[in-house]
Amino acid sequence: MESAYMKLTEGRRLKKSLYDIAALKLDEVLERMNDRQLEAYWQDLDSFTEVYPEHEKKLKDALAEKDYNLFAGHLTDMRNLMEKIHADDMAQECQAQINGLAFVDHAKLEANMNAFLVDVAVLSIDIQMLAVKFKKNEDAVAPSGGGGTGGAKSILAVDDQAIFLSTLKSFLQNTSYKLICTSSCKTAMDYLQNNKPDLFILDIMMPEMDGFELAQKIRESGQKAPIIFLTGNASKESVLKAVSAGGADFIVKPASREQVIARVSRFI
């Protein structure tokens, strides 16, 4: 938001959209905010997306070095950051991890933090995608689906790592989605000559061509279905590049079944 104060209708739309970000505990907080306070809070959210990648790196580095004193300090900074933006459950998780450092089980701590940092990255991306939506002054970031006509909605997933495609298949078993998987960008483009999926899931980091290049080719071929990128990077630069390439949303690796289903169900 660039104006000094939000317009009334804009503020209402923002509040409604913020309620949809489950990680933010805003049931009572937002209703007490006037326009100036809402704009200040929005700036806090924007600041969080800027600084999160640095905080994530510091936590991972300290954990890798098993420097638990330094790790506790960085985790305290993360807790304060979560409290400031009203991500209360995440703030409590930080404190729980700090309290548990008296009896360190490194493998368990590492697993817990990896899962926690995925959740925080998802929150950062949700906020950034909301910012994109408001910048465009639209009710949706992505175009509508790619032309399925009833029945199971089809998803084309492209990732050079077969293990993720296998995981994705297991996540989408017993759902109404038809999943087509390939590890080859060329195979994907060949498939699109005679097919129009309802959704694309594309890995960003691939050797043949990256996900951004593939997304461009998909759009050039006339395909209009939403594109979800697979990423491990929640930086603003990465998110904006993905949006510019036609991305509608993100799945953060390593993904959970809940995250995949939630992301997919937004579009089909």
Would you kindly provide a written description of the structure presented here, covering whatever features stand out?
The structure is a single chain. The protein has helices at residues 8-19, 35-64, 68-84, 88-99, 106-136, 162-171, 185-191, 211-220, 236-244, 257-265; strands at residues 153-158, 177-182, 199-203, 227-231, 247-252. It is of the alpha/beta class and 268 residues long. The chain folds into 2 domains: 8-136, Up-down Bundle (Four Helix Bundle (Hemerythrin (Met), subunit A)); 153-265, Response regulator (Rossmann fold). The model is unreliable at 1-5 and 138-149 (pLDDT under 50).
Strand order of the largest sheet: 2-1-3-4-5
Provide the succession of SSEs. HHHHHEHEHEHEHEH
Mean pLDDT: 88
Number of strands: 5
Low-confidence stretches: 1-5, 138-149
Which structural category fits the helices and strands?
A: alpha/beta
**CATH structural class of the largest domain:** Mainly Alpha
CATH architecture of the largest domain: Up-down Bundle
Domains counted in the coordinates: how many? 2
Termini separation comes to 30 Å
Overall geometric form: globular
Main beta sheet strand tally, sense and closure? 5 strands, parallel
Q: In DSSP terms, counting alpha (H) and pi (I) runs of 4 or more, how many helices?
A: 10
What's the Cα radius of gyration? Answer: 20 Å
Question: What's the CATH topology name of the largest domain?
Answer: Four Helix Bundle (Hemerythrin (Met), subunit A)
Percentage of residues assigned to helices: 40-55%
Amount of beta strand: 5-15%
